[in-house]
TrEMBL record:
Coiled coil: none
GO molecular function, one term: steroid 17-alpha-monooxygenase activity
InterPro entries named among the record's database cross-references: Cyt_P450, Cyt_P450_CS, Cyt_P450_E_grp-I, Cyt_P450_sf
Residue ranges of the TM segments: none
Essential cofactor(s): heme
GO cellular component: a single term: endoplasmic reticulum membrane
Organism: Owenia fusiformis
Designated name of the protein: Cytochrome P450
NADP recorded as keyword: no
Pfam name, any one: p450
Entry's localization field: Endoplasmic reticulum membrane; Microsome membrane
Keywords: Endoplasmic reticulum, Heme, Iron, Membrane, Metal-binding, Microsome, Monooxygenase, Oxidoreductase
Amino acid sequence: MTHIPGPSGIPVAGNALEITSTFKLMHKLHEWMEKYGEIFKINIFGEEIVVVSGTLTGEMLVTKGIDFAGRPRMPALESLEGNEVHLGLRDYDPKLRFIRKLVHKGLRQYGEGMDKIEAITVTEIAKCLDKIEKLDGADFDPFTYIHHAISQVMNTMVTGEAVPEGHPMLNKAIDWDRLDGEISQDPSLFLPALSSLSPLLGIGKLNDYAGVMEYFIEHWRSYEATYDKENMRGLYDVIYKAYLESETDEEGVKISYNNVKYLMFELYGAGITTTHKSIYAFVHMMVTHPELQKRIQAQIDDVIGSERNPTTADKHKIPLLEATIHETLRYISHVPFALPHETRKDTSLGGFALPNKTQVWPLTSGNHHNPKYFKDPLSFNPDRFLENDGSLSPASSRRMLTPFGAGPRNCIGEVFARTRLFLFTASLLQRFTLLQPTEGKLNVLDPKSEDYLKKIPSVCPNFKIRAIPR
Ligand code: HEM
């Protein structure tokens, strides 16, 4: 790949010493994108990684998506899941394709549209808001409140029910998220050539991580005793049934019991950490943009009023809230280069030849913050996604907005996440006005700051607000 441009680096280590933290990695990737353009390569102790942005993102993820649908190995994480990865980090092999089909089926039946699950979700959100109301307008950090509510949404997705109030699952999910954030501060997580040198990926942290994961898995396994194939309760039952009945797809693969356990964990973790961080950032944005908050509340009042809970059917009737969710995901770009991809055969991108097994990262945050695609990208402006009459602009105008990735390895939970984001934010602003705290005024979040970019997914540093019932 000598013809692909990129920073020269030093002998042996290549660019490794320039990216010793996740913040430095992100900072450098954006700097190199500006300098070298839509495709460049970096070198980490001899391992070359190609970084892609701009119009080549579509070529990589969609037009030639199948060529780029592999995943590089991440040995540190593999060792946690029985030396096999099961979904997000798995190569694009027949089993992965089967697993994705099963999960899609389960999400469609038991997550995205089913009234019962939606009703439970809305009830859980309402319980979270009741707790916030009890604070009586005092300063508080919404982190835990949002985390518990999102965990309950995910519990409902997996088992068909929320856990009782105060159940250890809720704080375990926070422990897991904290550990995941700590581990992700070390870029060697994404760079196999460095993983053996890593201090953070040390045995202690990985053991803690494994402990929390096993706790979740034991909790779900307890549902096996009451499994009834005539009464599917949630996604665990759907996947467990496929295992018990040795279901296969046209490629003839079957899933193992290990797959059932660990893929559920991957889904659960992926769903909590990303959705929580987007809602936490949304709340921050509402407090620092009070005029926008008022405009959204006016649309909520018109369409939903105050007498009933929001439903997914309301989503398209509140375009300003939809635009604000799009803008939040663009502005915070908290999954900045999706998950690492790998070529599955000799292929090419933008006219450059790429051999089989090349690691490729789609730098979607680079697109989201590029003035070529989004005018004045570091200003938070949901109106950019609205037409003059206030309706949402057509999806075709948002092609460069890909917070969930695209193509054959896109986020499997996108529809689920978007509906939950809507239900949560609509319920929150229907009931409360979110205000600056009495102490320590919030400034607008800087999505380029070290505090924000030090973990992946990126998360707003902790903050306090007040929530005043309307
Ligand atoms: C705001 C919320 C979310 C965002 C921004 C997000 C973003 C992403 C991104 C960027 C990817 C990688 C795409 C790629 O590699 O090209 C991904 C993959 C994935 N997401 Fe999400 N996600 C969100 C919510 C969820 C939810 C709620 C679930 C589960 C219900 C979920 C499950 C997954 C899984 C399992 C993968 C791996 C798919 C694969 O490798 O084939 N995500 N997500």
